[in-house]
C-alpha cells in the first residue's frame, strides 16, 4: 500500500465527504475563512464533521483566527487538527496549540529561497508544516489559489516535523510533485473542483489515485 497521505481541503457538502472517503484520503479540510468560496458555517461544519468516519482526520482551516472564533467553532465542531494559514507568529502557534490541545499545522508560503527559513522556525513550534505557494500580493485568499511554486526549492529538504506539499496541485501534476520533492503528504483544494468551491468527486478520485501511484 502507498505511504502517500492525501488531504482534500474545502469540503462543503455531504457528498464531498463520501468522495473523500471513497478515494481513501487521509484528511478532510473545512475552511473557516469567510472570504473563501469554500467557507462553511459552524452548523455546516458540524454536520460534515459528524458525518466523517473514524480514520478521516478533520482539519479546520483558519486565517489569523481570534480566540472567539476558535472557541465558537471548537464548542460545536469536532476537529482533529488546526490548520493556520495566515500570518500567525510562532508564539501564536505555540499558544493555540497549548490552549486547545490540538495538533497545529502551520502553512508557510514559498516563492523563493528566502522563504525557507520560516519553515525551520515554524518546524520548532508546530506539529506539522504545510508548504504552500506564497500568494500574490493582491490575492484575496492566502491559499487556495491554484498556484504552484518551484518545487525544486524544497527538493530533498526535510524538517523536524511531518509536512505536506500544497499549492496548485492537480491530478495531472501531483505525481511529478511527489517525485521531485519527496513529499509523503499532499494537500489540494482548487485542483479538484468543477467551479470555485464545488468539489468534483471524479477529480478527487483521480487525484488520490495519481498521488498514491
Ligand atoms: O481553500 C481555500 O479557500 C483557502 C482559503 C484560505 C487559505 C487557504 C486555503 N486553502 C489552502 O490552500 C492550499 C492550496 O490550495 P490550492 O490547491 O492551490 O487551491 C491548500 O493547502 C488549502 O488547504
Automatic annotation (TrEMBL):
Q: What is its EC number?
A: 5.3.1.24
* CDD domains for the chain: PRAI
Q: Which residues form the N-(5'phosphoribosyl) anthranilate isomerase (PRAI) domain?
A: 6-208
Pfam name, any one: PRAI
Functional pathway: Amino-acid biosynthesis; L-tryptophan biosynthesis; L-tryptophan from chorismate: step 3/5
Against Gene3D superfamilies, the record matches this protein to: Aldolase class I (3.20.20.70)
Q: Would you say which domain of life the source belongs to?
A: Bacteria
**Reactions listed under catalytic activity:** N-(5-phospho-beta-D-ribosyl)anthranilate = 1-(2-carboxyphenylamino)-1-deoxy-D-ribulose 5-phosphate
Question: From the UniProt record, which GO molecular function terms apply?
Answer: phosphoribosylanthranilate isomerase activity
Name the InterPro entries for this protein. Answer: Aldolase_TIM, PRAI_dom, RibuloseP-bd_barrel, TrpF_fam
- Swiss-Prot/TrEMBL keywords: Amino-acid biosynthesis, Aromatic amino acid biosynthesis, Isomerase, Tryptophan biosynthesis
The entry assigns this protein to a family as follows: Belongs to the TrpF family.
Protein's name in the database = N-(5'-phosphoribosyl)anthranilate isomerase
Q: Which organism is it from?
A: Pararhodobacter zhoushanensis
Q: Which gene encodes it?
A: trpF
Amino acid at each position: 500500500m502507498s505511504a502517500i497521505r492525501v488531504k482534500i481541503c474545502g469540503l462543503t457538502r455531504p457528498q464531498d465527504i463520501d468522495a473523500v472517503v471513497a478515494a481513501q484520503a487521509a484528511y478532510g479540510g473545512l475552511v473557516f475563512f469567510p472570504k473563501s468560496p469554500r467557507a462553511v458555517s459552524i452548523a455546516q461544519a458540524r454536520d460534515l464533521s459528524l458525518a466523517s468516519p473514524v480514520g478521516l482526520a478533520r482539519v479546520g482551516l483558519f486565517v489569523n483566527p481570534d480566540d472567539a472564533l476558535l472557541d465558537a467553532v471548537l464548542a460545536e465542531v469536532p476537529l482533529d487538527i488546526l490548520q493556520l494559514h495566515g500570518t500567525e507568529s510562532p508564539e501564536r502557534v505555540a499558544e493555540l496549540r497549548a490552549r486547545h490541545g490540538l495538533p497545529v499545522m502551520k502553512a508557510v508560503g514559498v516563492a523563493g529561497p528566502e522563504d525557507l527559513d520560516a519553515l525551520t522556525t515554524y518546524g520548532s513550534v508546530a506539529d506539522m508544516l504545510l508548504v504552500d505557494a506564497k500568494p500574490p500580493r493582491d490575492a484575496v485568499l492566502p491559499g487556495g489559489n491554484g498556484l504552484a511554486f518551484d518545487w525544486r526549492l524544497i527538493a530533498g529538504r526535510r524538517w523536524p516535523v511531518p509536512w505536506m506539499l500544497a499549492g496548485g496541485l492537480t491530478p495531472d501534476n501531483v505525481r511529478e510533485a511527489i517525485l521531485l520533492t519527496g513529499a509523503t503528504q499532499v494537500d489540494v483544494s482548487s485542483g479538484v473542483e468543477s467551479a470555485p468551491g464545488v468539489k468534483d468527486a471524479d477529480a478527487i478520485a483521480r487525484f488520490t489515485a495519481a498521488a498514491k501511484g
